[in-house]
Write a structure and sequence with these properties.
Elements: H1 6-19, E1 20-21, E2 24-25, H2 30-60, E3 64-65, E4 71-72, H3 78-83, E5 86-87, E6 90-91, H4 94-126, H5 129-140, H6 147-157, H7 163-170, H8 184-207, H9 212-220, H10 225-253, H11 257-262, H12 270-278, H13 284-309
Antiparallel strand pairs: 1-2, 3-4, 5-6
Helix pairs in contact: 4-8, 4-10, 8-10, 9-10, 10-13, 12-13
């Protein structure tokens, strides 16, 4: 029997690749059916309860508010112009200040969580194996309680009758009977406390894989402790630092419960603005525009994280 020509053999190989999947022969169209069977319910759920509402919010951000608070489906850029300070009465810096304040609070929270979480991550990594699970459990225990309850607990701790206020009053730092909230210190303390686990866990994952021989080599070459940490330790834990920063920055930027309860409803952030527009103000189009901008900020943060960490891999030397 004559040997098959090159074109015939190529067609047979294509037919084999098309009908065999991991050693299992499949009829035509079975790949599509299997993919639809496995991914269809999840895609339908995400599309129905996530993508469709998101597209509705985006469309609503280009609508107008009626005189009685109703939605007028007339295309306009006024909501975004107002968000960036340009309204019917001229420039108003209120909304741009809220946006800048939200970004500043998110960045400050991420930096403070990094400063506090780094020693904790190194401490947990230095524990014996049997105690590491206990320490990590203690880190995530705050997640077992609702955020609202934890915020009310901070109100009790920072109240005039709280032990912290008594200690500061005894030290002469504040007048007796003074509450430590509302104000920025109370907001930042609660923000760091609530988002600290998001920073500790990625940091611990990076610290756990540290190659300490690089630090020892830097010390043998005469590097000071600061230079050894900066040049031998930080490059190895940078992925954990970036991941933790993103995990803290994004939710902290849109936080509204903590500023509302511990800031005395005077420290408005993006989350508070969205809540107000969809609540008492009944300006859903403008609230949708704020939500869309907040979403774009989060997408930008994730994109920057991807660009910074793209193609980087931790290399462990023997």
């Amino acid at each position: 029997m004559a040997e098959p020509t090159g074109q015939t053999a190529f067609r047979r190989r294509r037919r084999i690749r098309r009908t065999v999947h991991f050693g299992e022969p499949l009829p035509p169209g079975a790949h599509t059916f299997r993919a639809a069977w496995l991914c269809g319910p999840a895609l339908a759920w995400v599309t129905t309860f996530m993508l469709v509402p998101l597209l509705f919010v985006v469309a609503l951000s280009f609508a107008q508010r009626g005189d009685a608070g109703e939605i007028v489906w007339r295309f306009t850029w006024e909501n975004y112009e107002r968000l960036f300070g340009y309204g019917a009465l001229g420039f108003d810096p209120v909304q741009p200040l809220i946006l800048a304040r939200s970004l500043g609070v998110g960045f400050a929270t991420a930096v403070l969580c990094l400063i506090v979480g780094l020693p904790v991550a190194f401490f947990i990594a230095s524990l014996p194996v049997r105690w590491k699970s206990v320490a990590l459990t203690l880190v995530v225990i705050p997640f077992w309680t609702n955020l609202l309850i934890r915020t009310y607990a901070w109100q009790l701790l920072l109240s005039p009758e709280g032990w912290l206020a008594d200690v500061l009053a005894t030290a002469g730092m504040i007048p007796a009977g003074t509450a430590l909230y509302p104000g920025w210190p109370a907001v930042m303390v609660a923000m760091v406390s609530d988002y600290l686990p998001f920073m500790i866990l990625p940091l611990y994952a990076s610290v756990e894989k540290l190659n300490w021989s690089l630090a020892e080599a830097a010390a043998d070459l005469g590097a000071s402790p600061v230079r050894m940490f900066w040049h031998a330790i930080v490059p190895q834990i940078r992925p954990g630092m970036i991941a933790g920063g993103v995990l803290v920055f994004l939710p902290a930027t849109g936080q509204f419960v903590i500023p509302d309860l511990l800031g005395g409803a005077k420290l408005a952030l993006l989350g508070n603005s969205v809540q107000q527009q969809f609540g008492s103000s009944r300006d859903w189009p403008f609230g949708s525009a704020i939500a869309v901008v907040a979403l774009l900020v989060m997408i930008l943060g994730l994109w920057l994280h991807t660009r910074v960490t793209n193609g980087r891999r931790e290399v462990s030397l023997p």
